[in-house]
Structure formats: C-alpha cells, structure tokens
Design a protein that fits this description.
The protein contains four helices and no strands. By secondary structure, the chain is mainly alpha-helical. The longest helix has 24 residues.
C-alpha cells in the first residue's frame, strides 16, 4: 500500500516527465562526487533516456492514467537516484539507475506501440 500517497496523476504524464528531466539535469550537475566510471554511466544513460522520451510527450498515451502512474514512479526513482548521488552511495545509485532505465524503456515501448481505437 505504498501507493496511498500517490497524487491524482490522470493526464499528468507529460508534466511529470518534464519534472523528471529537470531532476536529470540536477543529477548531471552533481555527479562529480561519484567514481568517474559511474558518473559517466549515469550521465550517458540519463542523457540518452531523456532524448528518447522527450519527443513522445505529445503522444496520446501520455495522457492516460497508466502513463501518469508510470511517469510518477519514474520521477520518484529519479529523485531517489539524485539522493543516492548526493550521498555518494554508488551501489544504491547503480541499482536505482538500472531500475529507472527499465521503467523508462517500458514506458517508451508502450507509448510507441499504443494505438487509439475509436469504435
């Protein structure tokens, strides 16, 4: 029941993704305290995922409840990743990065394959 604190996310997918992209920028500015290899991996992954999801924000699927829930989860993961980077916890940051990458890949796939059926 951890979802009890989730706000109403209906139709808010694009806004939540834009907030997540802002968190990505903040993470990229603060990753100097991590090992160079991990800092580079975080930077390249966040940049690639940001470029991948940004053009999809205007698609119809992004206004659905499911997209809003997934976007909210991705934003929370990004905030947790930011916290891990700030506390220099490399193992946790790597785990959060992998989880965020999987969530964003799933969201991207759903957005690209979503078909509006009007019957």
């Amino acid at each position: 029941m951890s979802d009890a604190k989730r706000p109403d996310v209906t139709g808010k997918g694009p806004a939540l993704i834009r907030e997540m992209l802002e968190v990505f920028k903040e993470i990229n500015e603060r990753d100097a305290s991590m090992s160079p290899e991990l800092a580079q991996r975080i930077k390249t992954t966040l940049l690639a995922k940001g470029e991948q999801i940004e053009p999809l924000l205007s698609r119809a699927y992004m206004k659905t409840v499911k997209a809003g829930e997934t976007s909210w989860a991705c934003k929370e993961l990004a905030l947790n990743l930011k916290q891990s980077v700030e506390s220099c916890n490399e193992a946790e940051a790597l785990a959060k990065l992998d989880q965020l990458e999987k969530e964003l890949d799933g969201l991207t796939h759903k957005v690209k394959t979503f078909v509006v059926r009007m019957t």
